[in-house]
Amino acid sequence: MKDELRMLLRKLRESAKISVALAAKRAFVDERTWRSWETLKGAAYDRQPSEKALWSFFQRSGIEMPQEFKARADDKPLGKVLSIASYKGGVGKSPITINVAAQLAEQNFKVAIVTDDGVFRGMCNDGRGPAPGTQVSKIDFYDELDLITSQADLKKMKKEIRDNVTHLPIGEQQMGRFLYGHLIRAVERKALATERLSDLIIRYDYVFLDINVKTELIRRHADLVAIVLDSNCYYSIQSAEAFLAALRAIKCRKAAPAYFGLITNCDVGGVSRELQEFVGDLPGLSDEIREDLQQAKREHYLRRERLHQIIHALDLPMLTTEMTASHKIAIELYNESRDFLDGYCYFHSLIDVAPHSHAAGEVRRLTDELINCRM
Ligand SMILES: Nc1ncnc2c1ncn2[C@@H]1O[C@H](COP(=O)(O)OP(=O)(O)O)[C@@H](O)[C@H]1O
Ligand SMILES: [Mg+2]
């Protein structure tokens, strides 16, 4: 790389007040490597950034890439794969995924979500999608069934159909076909898929796997897996443990993803507020009832504490960013003035509908941690 480019790189970094450490992080390299790019070329010194690294640095710093660099790095994808995952449904896996993806779309990254979510499928069948002009509309959505993923998965599905439909006595096949219709349709749809998930990943900066049960697929493709732990739900913790064990048991040549726990529903104070107010001031409450309520409150606190302990005893590092229930307030406000069918749903993000809310701030912090610190 020419000295003028090295000087330009340094000038751009310094005028954007970005430290070497941060610049290195954004380019996915260590500090020494970054420094070497800014060092004017001595005879024995010609280290230069890869196209991917340069592209990543400029994109993530929100700096327009100057023409001189563009010649070296055309729109190169980063191709990082994340999965915000859990076995248990209803823990916020999809909404958190879409929020983080929307935040990255706002930062001009090319983002895709690969999903097997039922609500997504239902809405697509109804011809619904993201509202034009929103950050979510910049995300490309793919149904997992439209991609070639793993042959092992397909084989497993076909075997399930054979065992439960084709191999049944003729008289029972119709019932089997009814019960396993979703699987039969899935296999038919998979057979039409032409694009490999691995090729799709190359075309994007970030690909999210909003996938529920297919651990094989997550293990094979993800670089980072954040397992959702609802801090108010023991079963979500239990299922996270099972999920992690299943992922770790998969034998695969690709390096294992980095696993983290993502704690949600973490506003312990907020959750027990009503009970506290009730116990606090109600006049004329008998001592006995007051004591019962106090005891209930204590037990509630202790239960949350116990869950907290169980979470931190897991063999899994926790992300520092904890999610609260603040999304509920933002969503409630958004839904207030809308028809039921126009309410917050799969294709909405807090980045679009409540960009100044506490909940959107949480999403930004989570995105920042995932992208800048954990990958
Ligand atoms: N950050 C968040 N943004 C929006 N909704 C969230 C968030 N965290 C949790 N949720 C909750 O997730 C629920 C929907 O989860 P769902 O789509 O059923 O989850 P999953 O994809 O895990 O099955 C909603 O009721 C919503 O209240
Ligand atoms: Mg979902």
Automatic annotation (TrEMBL):
InterPro entries found in the cross-reference section: AAA_dom (IPR025669), DNA_Partitioning_ATPase (IPR050678), P-loop_NTPase (IPR027417)
Domain called AAA: residue spans: 80-252
Domain of life: Bacteria
Pfam families hit by this protein: AAA_31
Protein name: AAA domain-containing protein
